[in-house]
Amino acid sequence: MDLATQPVTEKNRDAYYWRLLATAASFTLFGLGGLCLRLVVFPLLSCLPGDAQAHRLRARITVSRCFWFFVRFMARTGVLTYDIQGAEKLGRPGQMIIANHPSLIDVVFLIGLVSHANCVVKQSLWTNPFTRGPLRRTDYISNDGSMDMLDRAAEALKNGQTLIIFPEGTRTQPGKPPAFHRGGAAIAMRGAKILTPVIIKVNPSTLTKAEPWYRIPKRRVHFSFRVGADIDPQAFAACGPAPQASRKLNDYLHHYFIKELAEDERSTP
């Protein structure tokens, strides 16, 4: 897997209309790919031998490889560049990967990097005709805010799965710090062996909640992923009862990401 830094040059400020066309092609490819998985690939995979767990793992690996192909397609066609630091620390049993959410395709990168990962995804994607097939086959977890969601996520971690979660619940508003909901911390306290933060930066901002896909920046977008040091969630268990411990962990994570993102901003030339 090619994780090499993709340099940003003055040429990235050119070819605006080419990048617009390539962005349109990327979204078309993503939609058609989702339908192809639902109608062709997954029905064929379901014919292969194995129990429910084997079918689920096969589906997750398939989605991961398709997502990474999509990332590489966007990079090759000039839509974006990227660099990833510390990817080798991702994908351990019982690991909860927690990340900020500045752009629509953050989850595509992370699932592409961790082939067998489970993921908490927003509920609306389960009714989208392009995404509902892959989501059901992979048995990802719907972020419906229920106790059942918390139980499923914690149980997945206890069973040795890697879980990806975006505790903001939605994309970060440009120019504002991330605001974490306590659900992510509650899941970590209940089931995670280790908690690993991933700090994501997008420059210039693109594909935020308020931006349609065709409103592309004047220069090529650069995605930066930096895997931080592991955090032991049980270190917060001494803070008191479970709700209080979850609140302390959530506050720690909130300030951690604000600090790390601020340091990244200062180090950007």
Descriptors for this entry?
transmembrane, membrane, 269 residues, 7 strands, 7 helices, single chain, alpha/beta, Plipid/glycerol_acylTrfase, globular, acyltransferase, Glycerol-3-phosphate (1)-acyltransferase, seven-stranded mixed sheet, transmembrane helix
Main structural class: alpha/beta
Integer count of domains: 1
Helical segment count = 7
pLDDT averaged residue by residue: 88
Task: List segments where confidence is low: pLDDT < 50 over at least 5 consecutive residues.
Answer: none
What's the total count of β strands? 7
Strand content: 5-15%
Gyration radius (Cα, Å) is 19 Å
**Level-2 CATH architecture:** 3-Layer(aba) Sandwich
The percent range for helix content is 40-55%
**Main sheet makeup:** 7 strands, mixed
Order of helices and strands: HHEEHEHEHEHEEH
Q: The CATH topology is what? A: Glycerol-3-phosphate (1)-acyltransferase
The strands making up the biggest β-sheet line up spatially as 1-7-6-2-5-3-4
CATH class: Alpha Beta
Q: Give the termini separation.
A: 28 Å
